[in-house]
Every structure is written in C-alpha cells, then in structure tokens.
Amino acid sequence: MLELKRINVLFADDSEIYHLLFKAFLRGKEHFNLMHCAINGKFLVDYIFHSAVVPDVCVLDLHMPVLNGIDACQQIKRYFPHIILLGFTSSSDDREKEEMINAGAQRVFPKENLKELIDYLEKASFN
C-alpha cells in the first residue's frame, strides 16, 4: 500500500478563532501535520528558524500585528525558498493580495472560504 508523505504545515493568524477553524478542518486528515499556529508573522518566522523540522507549507494571514503576512513571506522566501507560502485574508483589496503574491505567496485565499484553502492543500503536490 502506498503511504502518503505527511505534509508539515504552519499557520499564522492573529485571530484565535481561525486557529480553531483551521485545526478543525485539518482534523482527520492524517497526511497533514499541523506543526504550530502563530499569532503573528514574527512568531511564525522565529518558529521556522528554531524548528528542527522545516515546514512544507505556511498559511499566513495578510494583516497581523508585529509582522504582517507580506513581510513574513519576504523573510521566509529569502531564507527558505522551497517552503510553499499561501495567503489567507479577509481583505478585498486586490493590490494587497498582489503584494503578497509578489512577496512569495503562491496564492491568496479568502477567509470566508476556508474550505477552498483546505481543498487546495489536499490537491497540491508536495513532492
């Protein structure tokens, strides 16, 4: 039987509610390992630098205190270019979404449709 590689995921959002929702959507999806949920971009970047395991994918909110998703994407891409970065926002400002893509995010998903993000993760190839 073919064994799926576990995908290591980090999540950053300043809203604890989205931490709970993200965890709930990943529950039961054994091929995902949610390594950590951070409350801002700085904590996420620090976690990556101090972790023994580098994540395969990071999901970042665009608007967070201390270090926003755009600046966090830039830092992560500079030192860990192989990590897949995905934006997650309630913003309807297309310029901000484009900034996040230019900073290194592969895609930006609306917070109103967390299922779309989870579906994308399930279909993505992390080989």
Automatic annotation (TrEMBL):
InterPro entries for this protein: CheY-like_superfamily, Sig_transdc_resp-reg_receiver, ST_Response_Regulator
Keyword Phosphoprotein recorded: yes
Sorted UniProt keywords: Phosphoprotein
Domain spans labelled Response regulatory: 8-126
PTM-bearing positions, type 4-aspartylphosphate: D61
Record's keyword annotation contains Cell cycle: no
PROSITE patterns: RESPONSE_REGULATORY (PS50110)
Pfam families: Response_reg
SMART domains in the record: REC
SUPFAM superfamilies: CheY-like
Record's protein name: Response regulatory domain-containing protein
